[in-house]
Each structure stands twice: as structure tokens, then as C-alpha cells.
Amino acid sequence: MRFARKASHALPGLLGVVAFLGAWQLIGVYRLAGFTWPPLTTVIAYLADPAHHTLLARAAAASFSSVGIGYGLGLLIGLAIAMLVRIIRPAREGIDQLVAVIHATPAIALAPVFMVILPRDAIPAAISALAVFYLVYVATTSGLESAHRAHQDLFSVLGASPFSRFARLELPAALPSIVSGLKLAVPVAFMGAIVGEWFGASRGLGLLMISGMQNFQIPMLWSAVLLATLTSLVAYGLMGLAERGVQQRYGQ
């Protein structure tokens, strides 16, 4: 019974994926979007060809490294600043505005600055970290405000110290929001790294996409897109499982 319920919940999503893949194949076979949209089978054949594995593996390793570094940096910086403004509350308004300004600035506009102050291969991770930082900061600051009022009053009556209140009440209450922010940060981490590779990185899936566009190597272009998308979806799904576990444990 439980398995049947889970299967019924997963069925709409599975049907959506099958419909998308089928539409991709039909559009490619019948050239409905021109020669720049290859059939899905052509892209899979390119990925399966051993002659391309070294190139794709080297590019994927570079991109995924940038994503991992950017995701980790964005997470640490976002958490640190969110906790700082929780401690120094008068600084909250100013930090919020500064974060909003940074987030509103297009990454393409910041790329020239990164090109001056960072090695080129570090730019993808920097842009990825910038995108992740914003989501983690917003999720954490919002989550730290979510502790129930009655629980806050109880801690006040018991004379809990600020650290005890933070560690035992506010941080656990914020965990569901933080994990939700981390889940949403997965795709933007990938997008940030891919965009960052367009500004002079020596290798990566983003670089393959540019090369594919410039040299009209359409299967290579779509293979890089498919690799990045599938990996992002898998990571997003894993974070969704983590989110469900945290919601069950700490959700109100």
C-alpha cells in the first residue's frame, strides 16, 4: 500500500520526463527547430562514443570541481554573514541592502572584476559562490526568525544565555529553511560555474558549449548541456531527500 502510494506520487513526474524526452526526439528527427536541435539519440550516441570520453570527462571534472568549490564557499559565507547579523541585529538592514545590490548586479557585469583580481580558472567557482551565497543568506536569516514565540518566551523565563538560545532553539528551527535554500542553490551553482567558464577558463563544460557553438559541433554542444543538466538534477534530487528528512525531524 505504501509502495503504491509512493509510485502514484512519482508517476506524474515520470510521465513529464518521458514526455520531454519524447518531444526532444521528435523535434530533432523532424528538424522542427532547425539543424541546431539534434535528436536525443544523436546526443546519446555522442556521449557513448569512447573517442569523446576523455574530452568530456576532463571538461566535466573541471566544471564539477568549480561547482563544488563555489557551492561550499557560498554556503560558508552565507551562513557566516546570516549568523553575524543575527548577533549584531542593528547591522541587519544595511547587510540586507548590500546583499540585494550584489544579487541584482548581473554576473556578466562582475566577471571583468573577477578577471582582474582572480586567476581565470577560479572565476567559475567565484560566480557560482556568489549565486549560492545569496540563497543561503536569505534562507538562513528567514529561518532564524522562525522559532515559535512560546518557545522563545520559555527560554527567556528559564534565563537561557544568547548562545544557548541560538544553539538549542533558533538554529534547529532554521534548519528546514536552510536545507530548502541549499536545494534551490544547486541549479544556480551549476549555472554560475557554466557562465563563469565563458570568461577565460581553460577547461569545462561551459567551454565545450562555446566551442560547439562557434564550430557548429552541435552534438558536442548538447552533450555538454545534457551532462550538466543531468548532474544538476541528480544533486537537486539528493538535496530534496535531505530536505524531506530535515522537515520530518525539525519541521513545525
Query: N-to-C terminal Cα separation, in Å?
Result: 27 Å
- Examine the coordinates and then state which fold CATH places here, giving the name of the CATH topology of the largest domain: MetI-like fold
**Poorly predicted residue ranges:** none
Along the chain, the helix and strand elements come as: HHHHHHHHHH
Outline the biggest β-sheet.
Answer: none
Architecture of the largest domain, according to CATH?
Orthogonal Bundle
Total number of beta strands: 0
Cα Rg? 22 Å
Q: Name the assembly state.
A: single chain
| Share of helix, binned | over 70%
CATH class wording of the largest domain: Mainly Alpha
Structural class: mainly alpha
| Mean pLDDT across every amino acid position | 87
Brief overview:
Keywords: Cell membrane, Membrane, Transmembrane, Transmembrane helix, Transport. This protein is mostly helical. Helices cover 82% and strands 0% of the residues.
Task: Name some characteristics of this structure.
252 residues, mainly alpha, MetI-like fold, 2 domains, 0% strand, globular, cell membrane, transport, membrane, MetI-like, Nitrate ABC transporter permease
Protein topology:
Blueprint: H1 2-29, H2 40-48, H3 53-87, H4 92-104, H5 107-117, H6 123-144, H7 149-157, H8 162-197, H9 205-214, H10 218-250
Helix pairs in contact: 2-10, 3-6, 3-8, 3-9, 6-8, 8-10, 9-10
GO biological process, one term: transmembrane transport
Main location: membrane
Family: Belongs to the binding-protein-dependent transport system permease family.
